[in-house]
Amino acid sequence: MKTKKFNITGMTCSACSARIEKNINKTEGVIEANVNLLSNNMTVKYDETILSEGDIIKVVLNTGYGASSTEKKKDAPDKSDKTDAEKEFTEMKKRLFISFIFAVPLFYISMGHMLKWPLPDIFHGTENSVVFAFTQLLLALPVMIVNKKYYSVGFKTLFKGSPNMDSLIAIGTTAAVAYGVFAIYKIGYGLGHMDMDMVMQYSMDLYFESAAVILALITLGKFLEARAKGRTSDAIKKLMDLSPKTALVERAGQEIEIPVEEVEKGDIIIVKPGQSVPVDGIIIFGNSSIDESMLTGESIPVEKKIGDKVIGASINKSGYFKFEAQNVGDDTTLSQIIKLVEEASSSKAPISKLADKISSIFVPIVIVIAIVSTIVWLISGATFEFALSIGIAVLVISCPCALGLATPTAIMVGTGKGAENGILIKSAEALEIAHQIKTVVMDKTGTITEGKPRVTDIIVNGINETEMLKIAASAEKSSEHPLADAVIEEANKKKLDLYNVANFEAIPGQGLEAIVNNKKYYIGNLRLIDNKNISINNFEEKSSRLADEGKTPLYFADEKNVLGIIAVADVVKPTSQKAIQEFEAMGIEVVMLTGDNKKTAEAIRKQLGITRAIAEVLPQDKEREIRNIQEQGRKVAMIGDGINDAPALARADVGIAIGAGTDVAIESADIVLIRSDLLDAVTAVQLSHATIRNIKQNLFWAFIYNTIGIPLAAGVFYGVLGWKLNPMFAAAAMSLSSVSVVSNALRLKFFKPVRTKNDDTSINKEPSNDEIKVNVESLSDKSNNNGGNNMKKTFIVEGMSCGHCKAAVEKALKSVDGVENAVVNLENKSAEVTLLNEVDDDILKKAISDAGYEVV
Question: Is 443 a catalytic residue?
Fold first, then answer.
């Protein structure tokens, strides 16, 4: 068995890739073939004893497209060379420019008489009819020549018995120009024989502008598709750029820097703070904290020691270590991700365009009608000229000008509306499939959550909360550990002035120690506390609770006791829960897929009410899970932000990237959420529904006028009523269909996302800079009768850090009419209100909010 990749040329839509794939797969000796429309290539697994490379290329050529082996490019490895997609985009841009340069003046000249536009005298009067007609022919020819691909592909597929959109374009425009040339001869004959009626009749019987405008508009649609395809290949380039170009290797007792391609298995590699890990391996000396978030999704940097595995392209945040290279070259984790992205995008199921489906039925019917009409009129005794004009008229009227507008206009308006709502839609395919989505798979870190650690809880015992945070932030300011940033950010948010620190010492894998105000303090994990023989006091239960909630507890201690805990976690975005509820309300299943640990994933799952969550998955596991869901017959959308999400984004039917995510994720995705808001993903699906509905309506308007005109063109009414196709009618039909299509597409501008009426239960709403963040654990508003009519309500409010906060909240609540008393407990962060009579919860919440705090 052999697997080979081929370059494919001539594909213009997903129906093309589907046709090639079908013909190759049914060829004897082929095990499997996948055609990638985006990268213009095909991967074939075949039995080389039965089939040769040339045989495969021949099948593609016979299908109507070009093919060549990718190996031809190996002699020119210059990275500056353009990819096939980039070349196609450049070519389409040239074609579009030339098409409109000639089509616009042609349209002006041809329609000038009808619309009373000013025209030079040379185009007026029967005596100038040849000039008028021949000028239009000269303007139409460059448009046809530059768009010759429609004819080569269209006629090839027609003769192979599988006509598509290009076939309809080729037949219709050829018939229009052929009839126009015939009209020029009739004009010349009329002038030569002084038959001015014939001259006048055929001067108005020209269809050159129809052919040119159809070609120009459809080329505009193809240009937009080519632009999207040109961006797709950038994902692979950016993945390759992530890997360090060099590695510091220890050989013969010396440190030497070599290209990463020259690293061999077993080499000892040195990594200093701030550097990227060049390849995969096992640490043999030292320890460090390594950021693997882009590769694994783990939001908190991972502590690494001797014997632990390190992954290529991860970043060494602090510490110095050496490791033995294990996986190098194509075997590294990053290389495997690149391979998965390529395979997933190439094996993505092709989407049949609705216009192509219609064309496959419509084209043969029109051809049959044209031939039958011609024959019937010849048999009935009509002249050959008359019968031929009937056949050509049928072909001309059946090629609707608006068909070129039907899809591009709706897509342009739809993508524009998406941009207004913070949604970048990169391809028409994405809009087409999004309305069929049945399962949404979401990454956790950076997608559902903010993607960076933040302080969520501060628990104290025997020390003021503000003072503890102030000391901790002062010590952490000298630390390079990523969790230190969260503590410092919290202190900055509360505008705390930090202390000077003496004798700072980082303890790798454990934490730090420092002297603040002549007293030694320790900040770190439980291992640090145990090693220093410090009493944990009564913090064990609280620490366990925080860990169960997916938070990382940092112990704060002096030389004898633990004085408090600062909990750090990657918090959920404000709108994540609402977005999940909206998807479920639309009948879409939501699955959370994360590389983070099971405990953290389970905490987030419970918090958001997600029914299914899968944790500790590698990039290839994510891609495999997407494939498993697809095999159940469900269309899948993947929402992610990291490099580790790239294979899954490429594999999914619709890949949706978070705008704040990595470039690789954004390039691998079909849709980008610019505002990084999951509710925008809901909007994207709803916009897809609206756009597809609009496209179907557009296709109806594109065909209806012309379809109605076919009986008239075929001369059905000529024998009875004397009606024959009038060129003015054809022009009017094309104009009306175009106006209808454009007007209908513009209705998408009024699209508004629909939200269910359930209450917004968004959590962890981000307070303004001068507010204190509140993380509500419970809310009890049950009435308690204390032997009388007084009622009590208890609010759990986190963020009150000192006696001033306590006094401010109590004063605010006591000032509310109907409140007898208010007592605030700083330790359990509760505010208990005793009421004389019923007071609405919103009034009490507003009182706290007005005092500078927030209740959720």
Answer: yes
